[in-house]
Amino acid sequence: MSCKTLVVVLGLLLCAGLAQAQVKGSGTLKCSKPDTQHKIDVGPNHVFTLNQSKCMPDSDKPFMVNGMKSGSAISTDSTEVNGNKASFHGYYVDTMENGDKAEYSFHGTAMMKDGILQDGDDHWMLVHGTGKMKGAKGHGTCKGNGAADGSVTWDCEGEYTLAGK
Fold first, then answer.
1. Fewest CB within a 10 Å sphere: which of 20, 25, 105, 116?
2. CA angle 128–133–136, rounded 5-degree value
3. Which of 119, 56, 59 shows the shortest CA–CA distance to 92?
4. Would the pLDDT of 147 be above 50?
């Protein structure tokens, strides 16, 4: 086999391996009204909050990654609300149904009304995982819609590269 042919074959094998390494994740998550919330007023219609909420996958469309189903999760964020606009960042720790954990960082913006999120967008990145999620990399987006009870439903999607794939 010539050197040129070997390079082409190795290149094709590498591309095939990389194509198989990417997996999609998508689904819907519902986060309750924050169980813990600390609020500091800055001025008229301007506050900072530190929040922690429990989240669960939607029973009809649970968040799935390579056949693994999202389980219970804790979302912790800091939010600045100025008028009806909010910006936030935080961490989301998901305990998958099989017991594996996935920790995500996220940041985004939202529109508020009377202190309740109406709609929002965020970007997330997988920062740590255990079990099948150990060594994985991932990133994606979510779109959120708030409810009158203070809960938020997030429709999320993203791409993952699992370790060992």
1. 20
2. 70
3. 56
4. yes
Amino acid identity at 10: L
Alpha-helix runs per DSSP H in 62-125? none
Write out pLDDT tens, residues 78-112.
999 999 999 999 999 999 999 999 999 999 999 99
Pair type for strands 73-82 and 68-69? unpaired
Length in residues, the chain: 165
Residue 105 or 3, more confident: 105
Residue type, 116: I
Nearest alpha-carbon partner for 142 in 96, 98, 105, 100 = 105
- Which class would CATH give 23-161? mainly beta
Q: Which residue has the tokens 């920790």?
A: 103
**Cα–Cα distance measured from residue 84 to residue 90, given in angstroms and rounded to the nearest whole number:** 20
Domain-by-domain residue ranges, the chain? 23-161
Contact 51, 32 (CB under 8 A): no
How far apart CA 94 and CA 68 sit, in angstroms, is 12
The closest of 104, 87, 86 to 95, measured between CA atoms, is 104
pTM: 0.83
